[in-house]
């Protein structure tokens, strides 16, 4: 193939960042992002976009740390530049607090974030139900702004965005040479993967511009994440729940849990309720597969299943996915026609 | 007992409230009036960004450190309550930047989580080689004055209308930290600073001794804008919403003491509480407590002077 034609399926943070990484690593290939949903209607758009990594049972910690470091470095450079507001990336400081001393007081990512330290007694006074805490500065990615910014970069480097719902990856043949599967929960159908399932998360968006710090309960269930345009309050973790409609009782519960941590929220105005289905899997699937069907072959790079931690590791894992795509291009170069003398 | 408080900025109103809270039940009636030529939103306090942070160099008057501590402790005790945002009070963290290493400030244990900046954090600010990170409080001048006015009005205090720092306000809601640069030779607030408030971000960096002009100076505007933009390039996206100038009431030290105005059958007792410069909001409650103490002494003396002589 002289110019590899690459289809990236899925336009959440994983699909778009993978497309950008491929275009940087393999200049000259043609990239089309195909998805039934684009921002602001993807799963990523519901996430607050805080860079605090999650653990996957089947993904080794050193890999996670590398991905998180790469993502942090990439976003930190943007946050310090004049483009930060266009890309929706900014620094935010705050606290992760625990009701009992955690087994791991210093997590694996402590030296990736900035200024990590234990909270002082004076700081813990703000949270009478909590006995231990960590203070640090990290990054927040306003996902809707960031996704739009990634789309712009894809278009600037000649990539195409196509709205289409696929029922089967074979629909992409013969128009494309390589498929990159970033479909999250869509992989249940498109890749026949029964190990991926939704963990439903509901959040509230409120107007509370005086809140400048994030607060996260160590369990991860209750959190307050201040963004550029609103504060995100969360959340829930409902396994196997596919319901995308916000539940009023859950909203009341989230609001009340957050007000315990930050009483000034009582007077905040709730502007939206949103639901996202986290694409949860025992580990991130990042691997090549050669699909075969009646003599036809279709190289696929799978890159999905980031569950609760997609934004936190997206750039690092996208760079690795781009490397796999580059390997595919090398492997599947069609032989040039033999000359007939 | 008739009490007049002259001045309706943060010092006047907080002193009035502090005295009223402590002595109104002792003195029935306590007739208190506030006289000022300007009320919110036209006072100097209304112009302030409201970041609670004492000056870097130790104060000449050691009592000022106590007053700073008392103010911080008082506000910290309020920040976790539901009234915090009615007062205009919130927590805020951020950066103090220096070109070279400096000793830790005397207030490092007053604020929360004080630490030095790590090398990676300093990478964000290429013009600076050293700095601090800490969590402090921010008290929006205008909102706080409105709240104090409401509390005083509830208590029956009456207000009477009797007779510059240049600041820019922009919308930059993605900024969550204050950034204050220091140049010990040039002095406080003469180098750029950025303080995000509840609705807007204040950009500053002029402190002109002796300048009585309240008009906005375009050269000041450029100085502030360029300085802050160098510190924080994302400000290119910020929308300018307002430009203000105010006079910080600068004095070598705060005047907080009793005085007398002679004349007539009884002298009028005066308590001076002025000259707080650029740190009025930072130190206001401690000074108000001190003024209330002086008020209490005056009451004691008056009681003693009225004790009838015993007739034996």
Automatic annotation (TrEMBL), chain A:
InterPro entries linked: D-amino_acid_oxidase_CS, DAO, FAD-dep_OxRdtase
Binding site for FAD: 43-44, 183
Cofactor(s) in the UniProt record: FAD
Keyword annotations from UniProtKB, A to Z: Cytoplasm, FAD, Flavoprotein, Oxidoreductase, Peroxisome
Subcellular location, record wording: Cytoplasm, Cytosol; Peroxisome matrix
Binding site for D-dopa: 223, 278
Residues of the FAD dependent oxidoreductase domain: 5-324
Gene3D superfamilies (UniProt xref): D-Amino Acid Oxidase, subunit A, domain 2 (3.30.9.10), NAD(P)-binding Rossmann-like Domain (3.40.50.720)
Pfam (any one): DAO
Gene Ontology CC terms: cytosol; peroxisomal matrix
Family (UniProt): Belongs to the DAMOX/DASOX family.
Stated role: Selectively catalyzes the oxidative deamination of acidic amino acids. Suppresses the level of D-aspartate in the brain, an amino acid that can act as an agonist for glutamate receptors. Protects the organism from the toxicity of D-amino acids. May also function in the intestine.
Protein name listed in UniProt: D-aspartate oxidase
């Amino acid at each position: 193939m002289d110019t590899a034609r690459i289809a990236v399926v899925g336009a959440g943070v994983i699909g778009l960042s993978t497309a950008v990484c491929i275009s940087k690593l393999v200049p000259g290939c043609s990239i089309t992002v195909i998805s039934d949903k684009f921002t602001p209607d993807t799963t990523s758009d519901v996430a607050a976009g805080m860079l605090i990594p999650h653990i996957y049972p089947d993904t080794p910690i050193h890999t996670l740390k590398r991905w998180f470091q790469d993502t942090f470095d990439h976003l930190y450079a943007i946050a310090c530049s004049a483009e930060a507001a266009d890309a929706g990336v900014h620094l935010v400081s705050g606290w992760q607090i625990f009701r009992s001393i955690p087994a791991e007081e210093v997590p694996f990512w402590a030296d990736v974030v900035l200024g990590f330290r234990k909270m002082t007694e004076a700081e813990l006074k703000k949270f009478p139900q909590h006995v231990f805490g960590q203070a640090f500065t990290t990054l927040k990615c306003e996902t809707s702004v960031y996704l739009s910014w990634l789309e712009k970069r894809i278009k600037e480097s000649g990539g195409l965005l196509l709205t289409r719902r696929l029922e089967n990856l074979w629909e992409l043949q013969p128009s494309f040479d390589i498929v990159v599967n970033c479909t999250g929960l869509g992989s249940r159908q498109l890749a026949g993967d029964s190990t991926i399932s939704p963990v439903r998360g509901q959040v509230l968006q409120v107007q509370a511009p005086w809140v400048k710090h994030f607060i996260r309960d160590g369990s991860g269930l209750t959190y307050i994440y201040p963004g550029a345009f609103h504060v995100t309050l969360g959340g829930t973790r409902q396994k196997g729940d596919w319901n995308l409609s916000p539940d009023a009782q859950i909203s009341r519960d989230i609001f009340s849990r957050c007000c315990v941590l930050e009483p000034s929220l009582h007077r905040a105005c709730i502007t939206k309720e949103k639901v996202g289905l986290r694409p949860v899997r025992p580990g991130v699937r990042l691997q090549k597969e050669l699909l075969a069907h009646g003599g036809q072959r279709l190289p696929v790079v799978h890159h999905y299943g980031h569950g609760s931690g997609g934004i936190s590791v997206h750039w690092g894992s996208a760079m690795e996915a781009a490397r796999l795509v580059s390997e595919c291009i090398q492997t599947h170069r069609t032989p040039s026609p033999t000359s007939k003398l | 007992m008739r009490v007049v408080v002259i001045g309706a900025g943060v010092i006047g109103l907080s002193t009035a409230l502090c005295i009223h809270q402590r002595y109104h039940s002792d003195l029935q009636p306590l007739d208190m009036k506030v006289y000022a030529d300007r009320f919110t939103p036209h006072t100097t306090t209304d112009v302030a960004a409201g970041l609670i942070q004492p000056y870097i160099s130790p104060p000449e008057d050691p009592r000022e450190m106590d007053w700073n501590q008392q103010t911080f402790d008082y506000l910290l005790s309020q920040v976790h309550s539901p009234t915090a945002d009615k007062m205009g009070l919130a927590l805020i963290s951020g950066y103090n930047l220096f070109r070279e290493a400096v000793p830790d400030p005397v207030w490092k244990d007053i604020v929360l989580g004080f630490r030095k900046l790590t090398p990676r954090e300093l990478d964000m600010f290429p013009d600076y080689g050293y700095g601090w990170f800490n969590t402090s409080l921010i008290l929006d001048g205008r909102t706080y004055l409105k709240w104090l006015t409401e509390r005083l009005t509830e208590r029956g205090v009456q207000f009477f209308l009797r007779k510059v720092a240049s600041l820019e306000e922009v919308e930059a809601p993605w900024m969550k930290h204050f950034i204050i640069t220091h140049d010990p030779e040039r002095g406080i607030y003469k180098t750029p600073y950025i303080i995000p408030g509840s609705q807007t971000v204040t950009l500053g960096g002029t402190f002109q001794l002796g300048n009585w002009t309240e008009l906005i100076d375009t050269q000041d505007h450029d100085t502030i804008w360029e300085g802050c933009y160098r510190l924080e390039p994302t400000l290119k996206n910020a929308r300018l919403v307002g430009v203000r100038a105010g006079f910080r009431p600068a004095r070598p030290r705060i005047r907080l003491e009793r005085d007398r105005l002679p004349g007539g059958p009884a002298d009028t007792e005066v308590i001076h509480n002025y000259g707080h410069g650029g740190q009025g909001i930072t130190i206001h409650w401690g000074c108000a407590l001190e003024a209330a103490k002086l008020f209490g002494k005056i009451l004691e003396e008056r009681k003693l002077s009225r004790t009838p002589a015993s007739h034996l």
